[in-house]
Amino acid sequence: MALLQIAEPGMALAPHERKISIGIDLGTTNSLVAIVKDALPKVLADINGKELFPSVIRYLPDGRTQGGYDALEHVIDDPKNTIVSVKRFMGRGLSDVSHMESSPYEFIDEPGMVKLRTVAGDKTPVEVSAEILARLRQLAEDSVQDEIVGAVITVPAYFDDAQRQATKDAAQLAGLKVLRLLNEPTAAAIAYGLDNASEGIYAVYDLGGGTFDISILRMSKGVFEVLSTGGDSALGGDDFDQCLYSWVLEQVKLSPLAPQDQRALLLAAKQTKEQLSLAPLANVHLTLSTGAVVHLEVSQTQFFEITQSLVSKTMTSVRKALRDAHLQTQDVKGVVMVGGATRMPHVQAAVAELFAKQPLNNLDPDQVVALGAAMQADLLAGNQSKNNEWLLLDVIPLSLGLETMGGLVEKIIPRNTPIPVAQAQEFTTFKDGQTGLSLHVVQGERELVDACRSLARFELKGIPPMVAGAARIRVTFQVDADGLLSVHAIEESSSVQTSIEIKPSYGLSDSDITRMLQDGFASAKEDMQARSLREEQVEAERLIEAVGAALEQDGYLLTDIERALIRKEMAQLHNLVQTEQDSSIVRKAVEKAAKTTDHFAEKRMNASIQKALTGKNVAEI
Amino acid sequence: MANLSASDNYFTFFGLLPRFKLDTSVLDQAYLAIQKEVHPDRHTNGTEAEQRVAMQLATYANTAYRTLKDPIQRGLYLCQLNGVEAHLETNTAMPVQFLMKQMEWRETLDESAEDLSTLETLAAEVGQAHQNAVILLEEECEKGHYQKAIETVRGLLFIDKFATELDDAIAELA
Asked: What are the φ/ψ torsions at residue A168 (nearest 5 degrees)?
């Protein structure tokens, strides 16, 4: 248990309390949770000493769920209700689902994202992922015996906006505060780079269970700068299993398999693949539910031939990422290998050949992402001293565009642009009195709308009626440091600026999430009301603490009156939080108090920029 | 947007003089120094206001850096600062000689799409034309001839677009 900290009366919590935050690698096949302890990142093990948590959730008829190894035991005998590799369905519609023929699930087509029909009802991939995340959170809480203040959750660098948003929604549903969505290869680069004090250009080749990423980074002391990224969010170790699975079916000429036999054969293919990373020969041996026996010997050479096209696909992405970074293979100092699928010898060989150097395998490819995420979580929680802090500059992986006339795409933010980034675009009306406008935002590199991913259709309403072409609607597309898009619009020609209501066409709304939480979700069994009150109280304490520290440091930027006003607001908030039991009243008070600090925040930030450029303390000038 | 009155343009934001000639290593250092202060990762424990300002300033820093780093965008921005607009959507007129050269390049690309060595020779020629135009742009900007400079910028945009297509074609073959 943590030592009790006793604050002076009227004072906020001591600012130097160490805050425990976690790093989560939410993988297609396995997930991991890690923390930084005594300055070292460390993957947490469950009570049985296992560090890998299989990303598997099983739904039971009474609504209860099993997760991890408990669920894994039932992949063959209860395939429909035991969901594996759910990451592949995050933010995806039915038409995006590959290998549907060998999936045992009953898919339900829904606008935006597929659902899976289980014995406990229809489940979105977000809900299934939230079950995994809730278990990882529990594992961490049990392990550290303390409250978790937040999490860094990793996503494939090549995840688009819909997939990122789905991941963030899942975290919210699991009761986790997301400090940052971090790209998996970037997380690996942090773990590798800090461990080895690397300097120069590095590539991270990350072949996971279901996704492939390549990132090119420049590492220098204290800075990780992503120069370009590429990949395929539907290519991973699973696809190598699928290739082998299809090949076996072809060899033994089997008629369509029952769901449990599909699962069993896929599992056998996976095991054979893993054996072939260690030995030149392996056997697929399986007795089907029909009594038929499948027995087949596979050589490494055969397996490499069957799957070579997948390896080549990754190499095409690697070359493209290098071109985007305006670099040649010889500029790259080292290639860090990440993800269990990089254990395959022909993957290693292809990377070695392209870069003409041996890839770097000195960190466990299963753990490196979670370790990097834990380090970033520790940094973001404010546990690193100023001298040890590092800066991470990441990019948007896929171009953002708008649909224009004729189904064409106009790019507004090109891929590999550093984030956060914003781009404003002006629109006008084409009919007299027009009060609405619809915008279609897509993501991808192709020139036709149909070949890109549709992210959202926005309806702009409430434009003041004017003659055609008179309205000046300025739409700003903002991509934040999580790589998530938000859109704001304003009508500029009328004397009063009108904020325009914007509604995305899909994605989970806050009310969807509230409903899911109320539906008795695993993480939400505690009293909802008490939980949200506690959250608002923490928020209030955080604000009081942050403003107090800011006044201490930079109070001289304000006049005496300004300072007094802020102190009064904070004192009032402090008093209210001691007694108020209604979370919505606390939230409103926090918002009001926060508002009084807007001006101060701007002054501080501008002062820090001046200081950074001149290398002097502003007070000295 | 946060109050940026202390730095009303991208150059002054990085503590640089508003001119085309620029030491990119100084720009890089200024960019990193500012991002170390304003990046949202530095303010995850700050107030909501602080986080919002951080995102706005980090966004501004990224836009400013991208603009100044690229000679074409830098030239375009400098012209705009000096009151000369490019009107890229409406003004597409280019000197005949320039257009002839563009047509010749396009023909070579279309006819030799499968011939790597021809494309690489062409790429070298286009690269040289790009370099020459940037040198010219710098001279014009230094002399304050922004009307001429904007024409050079428009030419460079054409060259750049073609260079990208050519690069894609070469990548297809390699």
From this structure: -65, -40
Asked, for residue B81, whether it belongs to a domain, the answer is no
Q: Based on the domain organization, do B58 and B108 belong to the same domain?
A: no
B41 CB within 8 Å of a chain A CB: yes
The pLDDT, as a whole number, for residue A204 is 97
How many interface pairs between A and B have CB atoms less than 8 angstroms apart? 120
Pick B6's closest partner by Cβ from A150, A323, A610. Answer: A610
Would you say residue B169 lies in a domain? Answer: yes
Q: Residue B86: inside a domain, yes or no? A: no
Query: pTM for this one?
Result: 0.85
Chain B residue with CA closest to A383: the answer is: B45
Tell whether B123 and B166 lie within a shared domain. yes
Which residue in chain B has the smallest CA separation from A549? B46
Rounded to the nearest angstrom, the minimum Cα separation between A510 and chain B is: 19
Whether the upstream peptide bond of residue A420 has omega within 30° of 0, thus cis, is yes
Token pair 């990122």 is found at: A164
State whether B41 and A392 contact (CB < 8 Å): yes
Question: Are A352 and A168 in contact, with CB atoms under 8 Å apart?
Answer: no
Cβ pair B39:A595 closer than 8 A:
no
Residue whose tokens read 């004072």 = A11
Tally: H helices and E strands in chain B: 7, 0
Q: Which span out of A290-299, A368-377, A465-474 was modeled with the highest average pLDDT?
A: A368-377
The per-residue pLDDT for range A299-337, each reduced to its tens digit, is: 999 999 999 999 999 999 999 999 999 999 999 999 999
Average pLDDT over residues A528-543: 78
Under an 8 A CB cutoff, do A602 and B62 touch? no
- Select from A381, A547, A613 the Cβ nearest to the Cβ of B15: A613
* Digit-coded pLDDT (tens) for A410-421: 888 999 999 999
Interface confidence, given as ipTM, is 0.87
Percent of chain A with pLDDT over 70: 89
Q: Where are the domains of chain A?
A: 21-195+363-387, 237-305, 400-514, 526-620
DSSP one-letter code for B40 = G
Short-list A483, A489, A485, A425, CA closest to A459: A489
CB–CB of A609 and B34 under 8 A?
A: yes
Q: Is B17 on the interface with A (CB under 8 A)?
A: no
| Domain A400-514 of CATH type 2.60.34.10 | yes
What domain range is B165 assigned to?
96-173
Give the closest of B2, B62, B171 to A323, CB-based. Answer: B171
Look at residues B69, B86, B105 and tell me which one is the last residue of a structural domain. Answer: B69
Which CATH entry fits the domain spanning A21-195+363-387: 1.10.569.10, 3.40.47.10, 3.30.428.10, 3.30.420.40? 3.30.420.40
CATH number for the domain that contains residue B36: 1.10.287.110
Beta strand A30-37 with A121-123: parallel, antiparallel or unpaired?
Answer: unpaired
CATH architecture for segment(s) A237-305: Alpha-Beta Complex (3.90)
Average pLDDT over residues A83-100: 85
Average pLDDT value over all residues in chain A: 85
Question: C-alpha angle with apex A584: A583 to A590, nearest 5 degrees?
Answer: 90
Task: Answer yes or no: do B26 and B65 share one domain.
Answer: yes
* Cβ-based neighbours of A46, under 8 Å, separated by 6 or more: A53, A68, A139
